[in-house]
Amino acid sequence: MFRWGIIFLVIALIAGALGFGGMAGTAAWAAKLVFVVGIIIFIISLITGRRAP
Description:
It is built from 2 helices and no strands. By secondary structure, the chain is an all-alpha fold. The chain has one domain (2-48). The longest helix has 29 residues, at 21-49. 8% of the residues are buried. The mean pLDDT is 79.
């Protein structure tokens, strides 16, 4: 999940450096979304995986 966030971040940085403003904004938004979803899934897995039998 974090791999996709990093990929979108790199795309946003490259697009921003080349002057593609709209595409850079979209890729940055996608990177943020994937990162937040990854954090949420990580927290859920920590909570559900730590239950004592």
